[in-house]
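Hi team,

Below is the intake form for DNA-binding NarL/FixJ family response regulator from Nocardioides cavernae. Please confirm the fields before the structure is written into the shared record.

FORM ID: S-0412
PROTEIN: DNA-binding NarL/FixJ family response regulator
ORGANISM: Nocardioides cavernae
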Amino acid sequence: MTGEVLRVVVADDEAMVRAGLRLLIDGEADLEVVGEAVDGEDAVRVARDQRPDVVLMDVRMPRLNGLDAAREVLAQVPGTRVVILTTFDEDTVVDEALRRGVAGFLLKSSPPEEMLDAVRRASAGQGVIDPSVVPGVIARIGRSPSRTPAPALDMLTPRETDVLRLVGLGLSNAEIAAELYLGETTVKTHLGRVLDKLGLRDRPRAIAYAHRSGLLDDEPRA
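The structure came back. Fields below:
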């Protein structure tokens, strides 16, 4: 986060979508649209020029798709977070987005307040995944025959393990705090230690790690 007002770039090839997002975002006192991009290559250029806190990135765009553009933005503009905002929830799109290291994945059908919250959470390093796609991610990992518990989990305290498990289930810091009867700041501290110990950059990667490690094996599948 670069200041009190979060700087946002909107990347979408549809002018009406960009206009709607700009209207929504600029209506918030703590958010500001500082640039728009009409395709993936444009998104990389605008992000490089503006160095925003967050880029809202569509997937299906000309010249360079949003997933490849996200990878370039993350490589060329350190500190900028990318949130995928798309109408497509295909398994391959979701999984590839997470592999690219995005801070969030939301569907355009999400309520406006969820999108605004995702921008704020992404900038704060929390990340967000649309609740509608989480069951699919868990189910696909559940079908993987090669998943085994990761020895690195032994480095975590019991409370840190609890936090990682709930992060893996898609809960926010506030929800985890309520579940574990902790303060939200304490949850954030535990998660920061989890990320440091496991060498993970952000919350989406922690979610993916929780799934791959086998930590969620005993959780009910969707």
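SUMMARY LINE: The chain has a mean pLDDT of 83.

Thanks, M.
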